[in-house]
Amino acid sequence: ASVFSGLAPQAPDGLLALIGAYRSDPRPDKLDLGVGVYRDARGRTPVFAAVKAAERLLVEGQDTKAYLGAEGDVGYLEALRPLVFGARAQADVFGVQTPGGTGALRLAAELLAAGRPGAKLFVGAPTWPNHEQIFEAAGVTLATYDYFDAASQTVRFEAMIAALATAAPGDAVLLQGACHNPTGADLTKDQWRTVADLVAERGLFPIIDLAYQGLGRGLEDDALGMRLILAAVPEALVAYSCDKNFGLYRERTGALFAACDHPQRLSKAGSNILALARANWSMPPDHGAAVVRTILSDSDLATMWAAELETMRQRLIDVRAALANHGPDLVALKDQNGLFACLPLTQHQVGRFRDDHAVYLAGSGRINLAGLTVEAVPDFIRAYQTLRQ
Ligand code: PMP
């Protein structure tokens, strides 16, 4: 019998279909608010100048393409430490380079499944849809906590806490560190403290996904929630991505960090993470991590990179402010972070946005603010308000 015929057909990625439809739309004022990459005011996703400079150094200086180990580029991991963990630089952390934040999440999922078979993982509703697929593919059972109310544009914090209070000791919770995808709504410092206390008190295992450091409130502030959680618990995982904050997307540049205050447990976690990495991809791709290492270990390049990142962050803030100014029901967007916001639109309204106004967004109502310019905001708001009438 055919192996292939036993397979259930899988739906294609919705956002990729959206790209195709957008490309073939002839309307000149069309807007692509679908795909989740940063774009400048001219609609481009340029390579950072700091990345180009680092790449030139690598072309000249890299003298071998021989294998690195399963942990990847150790210099990259060392260079990330102060950026991610701050002045403490977290001696009690083990790191491994991964193919993107996605690879880090997949390893986290497999480590959880191996270390605590049958554990439940609480994910936010909503969250990045791939979270569910990644953890389910590794055999992890999912539960949800309410996270966001699109109509009022607020975090449903009490409902979130109530859901986490039902978790059994040993269950895991997935938290997004900053620039929440898809809502843009992050926890306040006080809310992070409350979650950290709850997670510690109930003995939950936190997995923190930090994929947009520097695009929200700034490099330090975007790490704050994660650091509060790490300070409160005996062990945790951090899935990190450099794909947005270094603009490296297709280079697939990420890391998984295990934090643990117990040296033997940490070394057990480390050896298992390496074994899982070997079984998944043996070794991660080199280039993106080599670029990040080169940038972060050269103070001129690091300064250049931070300035470019800050320009992106400011542009997102400007678009948020313009949306808040023009749309009374979008005022909350200016206190949210990162690339995304979730508009309270039905699937039908999303379809009409596309058909009547040439505005393309995900079926969930998620928009990528980097697809807008400050100048395009008034027209966008007019169309949005027409739809909502
Ligand atoms: N986590 C979140 C919340 C994301 O939005 C993304 C990317 N869309 C990732 C992780 C994965 O990032 P990467 O492209 O580095 O795999």
TrEMBL record:
GO molecular function, one term: identical protein binding
CDD domains: AAT_like
Keyword Transferase belongs to the record: yes
One of the protein's GO biological processes: L-phenylalanine biosynthetic process from chorismate via phenylpyruvate
Swiss-Prot/TrEMBL cofactor(s): pyridoxal 5'-phosphate
A Pfam cross-reference name: Aminotran_1_2
GO cellular component, one term: cytosol
Domain Aminotransferase class I/classII large, first and last residues per copy: 29-382
InterPro entries, per the entry: Aminotransferase_I/II_large, Asp_trans, PyrdxlP-dep_Trfase, PyrdxlP-dep_Trfase_major, PyrdxlP-dep_Trfase_small
Keyword entries, A-Z: Aminotransferase, Pyridoxal phosphate, Transferase
NCBIfam families: PRK09257.1
Subunit structure, as described in the record: Homodimer.
Membership in a protein family: Belongs to the class-I pyridoxal-phosphate-dependent aminotransferase family.
Record's protein name: Aspartate/tyrosine/aromatic aminotransferase
Species name: Brevundimonas intermedia
